Amino acid sequence: MGRFARRAVASLALSALLVAPTAVAAEDTALETGFERTGGQRWTTLAEEREFLAELDRRHRDVSVRQVGTSVEGRPLRLVRVGAEHARYTVLFVCSQHGDEPSGREACLTGARDLARDPGARRFLDRGAVLFLPNANPDGRVADTRENAAGLDINRDHLQLRTPEARALASVLRDHRPDVVHDLHEYGGRPPYYVKDFLSLWSRNLNTAGQVHAAGQRLSEEYVRPALEERGFSTGVYGIYTDPETGEPIRQVAGDGQARILRNAIGVKNAVGLLGEARQDPMTEEEQADPALNNRRRVESQRIALDEVLRMAEQRRPEIQRATTAARLAGLRDEGPVYFGGADNEPPAPEDVDTDPPCGYRLTAAQHQEVGDELDLHGVRSLPAPDGGRFVPMRQEARALVAVLLDTRADAPLTPAEPVDCR
């Protein structure tokens, strides 16, 4: 008997929010994904996803499903909201940015359904909202490719916004200003150093405010990983090879502070971020012989992590709101350094730290014509300049993002803007 069969299957109830077990209407129990109906033999198709979300929207007054963009090949990107329409506190799940990593999408579809029908979640949903982008790369899911239909990695495009999929997500981040964002992925193991059931990581970018960074690390290390370990899953920190005998870190191979990756962009945008990575490769001989067993293990680990994100979001709501609010307001003071390199575990080079950054950046009219839409999608404010161009002040909520987008020292600036010294 395989490991998955030996351990108890994770409850689909969101135990973090459930007050007491309640009966689920028979109508709700019939609402299943294609993955569930086949016992994990195959992934939910796009047609099944569309029908599932439409039925979820029809059955529950607290659920709305709307299109927020289209993919390269014209497929809709749907955002599912469960909870308050104009919430002051929001959690966002971004699912399967890479099309060949489908388990996160399955977890988000069932997670939205289970949250919507859970009476114990009422207290949370009366004042907050949980958003799901269940299929962030529909073209990649159809083709079973990491990239979108244009051959671009969406998860390397959260600054320049060249892909329609990343642009749609940027608009969601701007319009809903989530306090917590969980990005669901999968990874391929590299035995014997990288073979955990599930890996997680917070925003490592040094422009992430201290309290926001601490909350993301706590989400990984005090909620998600312990919960998975309690259910029999092995866990680790994404990007870190560990000695198979001692468990000690050997070297870092991924998971740096690049702002263009969603996990880090989230932090720069003053929200608590978490990356989750379920292991795709079979973990046992039983999983090797039965792909459905492997698929179910992957989805189960994603669901446990998803539920833990919601548990922390509920338990630590005041703390998280204080952290994200303080981070946003700090930009209005226009104080402190800006970082163009380094990470929370990698000191930046001296040239990557600006201890006295400019008060803003000047764009020519042509530059603004070129990148104005992207600045708007990022929620970056600009002002008319006397020469017909635009002035982008640092004194705004998105202070660090301004420099990351416009300074020539940044990894992937939108355009080389002219720094302005207002002294």
UniProtKB/TrEMBL annotation:
SMART domains: Zn_pept. Keywords: Hydrolase, Metalloprotease, Protease, Signal, Zinc. Residues 42-313 form the Peptidase M14 domain. Residues 1-25 form the signal peptide. InterPro entries: Peptidase_M14. The active site is at E277. CDD domains: M14-like. Its cofactor is Zn(2+). Pfam families: Peptidase_M14. Belongs to the peptidase M14 family. This is M14 family metallocarboxypeptidase. It comes from Saccharopolyspora cebuensis.
